[in-house]
Fumarylacetoacetate hydrolase family protein
Amino acid sequence: MADYAITPPPVVTLPISGSETLFPVRRVYCIGRNYAAHAIEMGHDPNREPPFFFQKNANNLITDGTFPYPPKTSDVHHEIEMVVALKSGGVNIPVDQALDHVWGYAVGLDMTRRDLQSQAKDMGRPWETGKSFEFSAPCSALRPVSDVGHPDAGLVQLKVNGVAKQTGDLNQLIWKVPEMISYLSEYFELAPGDIIMTGTPAGVASVVKGDVMECHVAGVGDLTVTVV
């Protein structure tokens, strides 16, 4: 038995819908500007440029239906996304084999300290303070492929206090799920337990304490999160 210098951190997990079994998480990859309308609202070209990715930390995931408002910011934005969970990985995965590596799907939020991200962009610095902070990735329970298949079309919507703020369709993804997996595997060795957040539609906006975010991805499920 290993003798650790300190107590090892707990394994990060996501719940599985209708099961007591847990899904262990290794890494969280996020694709940027993967809906044309969102690229435009962020001031970028909506054309199909090569994708780019950033990471959140696995322990940024939170599944209790709350989002604690973070420190050092006054402009926290919601970004609804479909989440992909991998059961296997590898390098240089062909596009036509990529979906074979998917275990299931969930509904997630890429919460963003937009003011800090904007400062980082202006100074040519990394985005971690804006993206990879505690509790920045609220997520629903996973649903296995055996239940939902591979959703590639359908409503993606986020409401705040009952008012629709983000509305899109999975068929509007610039880079589709198989392409994301294949592209990522050219730069990283993907592995079981990796999570991919697939991008957000237009309409990102600030939230404040007390706001209730209702998230829906057709064919995947729902997620309700209260800002506390």
In short: The chain has one domain: 13-227. The first helix runs from residue 36 to 41. The two ends are 41 Å apart (CA to CA). The mean pLDDT is 95.
